[in-house]
Amino acid sequence: MTPVPARRQRGPTDPDRRDRIVEAAIVVLTEQGVSALTHRRVAAAAEVPLGSTTYHFATLDDLLAAALTRAAERSVAALRAWEESLDPDADIARALSEFVLRSVSETRSDTMAEYNLYALALHRPHLREAAVAWDNALAEVLSRRTDPVTGHMLGVLLCGLLMQVVLADEAPARESVEALIRRALTGSSDSAV
């Protein structure tokens, strides 16, 4: 009697595939724009079969929601790490200006992806929850160094600054960004914070 071969266990052979697909979607959005996002392009960027993208994300909106959530989580994690690394008596205006400029230089592609996805939430209500959670987390982190109202105001200012700076051909001088943040914090561009 021939032995019966052991049955292969079913299960994920590539447990990181879903994450790679989300990261690939962010890359496609950053490099080619929202109109270029297709399951086929994302599958090629993630180096997975086309069926994998539709298995994990039945619609492009599902994929967009996952990408927006990932971009927001990464942005907030970076901001939290930044805030935790600051000395207790750090000059917040200077530190925030450096954070803004790093966000549009070293991590420019992440920032561009975040704003592409953020803008989509305007017309796709199911994406708004992730965008609002991003705003709330930003205000919460900034409130640790200030107060709730000032933290919210700084969050709004940073969103606007990041959008303007990422759209510009060249980054503004750190001093210009710092002056805006300092004015928001103190009402005067000459005061130290």
From TrEMBL:
Pfam families: TetR_C_31 (PF17940), TetR_N (PF00440). Residues 15-75 form the HTH tetR-type domain. The keyword DNA-binding applies. The keyword DNA-binding applies. Transmembrane segments: none annotated. Keywords: DNA-binding. InterPro entries: Homeodomain-like_sf, HTH-type_TetR-like_transc_reg, HTH_TetR, TetR_C_31. GO terms for molecular function: DNA-binding transcription factor activity; transcription cis-regulatory region binding. Residues 38-57 bind DNA. This is DNA-binding transcriptional regulator YbjK. It comes from Hoyosella altamirensis.
